[in-house]
Amino acid sequence: MARPIHAFIHPHALRHNLARVQEAAPDARVWAVVKAHAYGHGVARAFEGLRAADGFAVLDLHEAQTLRDLDWRGPILLLEGVFEQRDLELCSRLDLWHVVHNEAQIDMLSRHKTQVPQRIFLKMNSGMNRLGFAPERFRSAWARLNALPQVDEISLLTHFAHADDAVGVAQQLQVFQATSHDLPGERSLANSAAVLRHGDNPLVLGDWVRPGIALYGSSPDHPLHSAADWGLRPAMSLRSQVIGVQQLQAGDEVGYGGIFTAPHAMRLGVVACGYADGYPRHAPNGTPVLVSGVRTQTVGRVSMDMLCVDLTHLPHAHLGSEVTLWGQASTGEVLSIDEVAWAAGTVGYELMCALAPRVPVTSLGLAA
Known about the structure:
CATH superfamily of the largest domain: Alanine racemase
Strand content: 15-25%
CATH topology of the largest domain: TIM Barrel
Structural class: alpha/beta
Number of strands: 19
Largest sheet: 8 strands, parallel
CATH class of the largest domain: Alpha Beta
Distance between the termini: 28 Å
Number of domains: 2
Radius of gyration: 23 Å
């Protein structure tokens, strides 16, 4: 028998979460963001649940190729644009839309030999201070692109640094609007948090929204709101089993370094999951976990291949009992990935993306 740890992807949850975003932004089209291996879910596995999106947003050309191989013929947006001249040849062949955020990318476009002009999203740095043209350089970049025969329609894009903060959104929106208000082209500003928190503002939603984390069932503003508060369902469940049971006496230590000492007699379960599977090593004592659908907590330090959980109040737990590290138990109970991430001092994004290659992954199909 294979080691019992397994990740399950729920396409029906992806489909539900996409519908939730569409409901929140009814007048905008949706880029389903599938960068980073679809946030650890796998582009091919996520595709069926997200194919009702208007387009897909990716980070690299391999992801774009995967979508075309899946017979997606709609728009695909390359979020960081191209990195070298020859990338534009693949953009032409795969019919990609791509972001332009620096002068070097405009230079590459000016040298690109193509019979079919390309669709561009010109990015403004409205306050995030990562990629994009500063507001004072944005219009000249637009003029350069507009003069190129290699360029078709130019859309305008920015990214919110404080999408969960109304003041931060208002400040960046003011910069974006003041700079681009009279330029033609579609707009794209809103990520998951902006869609869910500021969906009543059509200027924030623009023409295209770019949800990422919400599609995968994680709250973009945890702990202020939970995934359930936003009506989102987990798209990934990480499950394993109890592979050992220990009876502890008061004073017994658990795991490397003995960071946990039993305060009284306890029943301990050993679980086939560790940091080599993608579970956070820094998750402390008390990190929530489900055993046979019942909430309990971790005990001691997470090791490479195992972690321990408290079974004291679970007399029916035994060797082989199901353990849900995050997501939905087979009995239906849900442990949000955000709760686990919060306990470990990180975010759900990181846990999804950190799922290790050695963990088998199965799609459970589209039936709810």
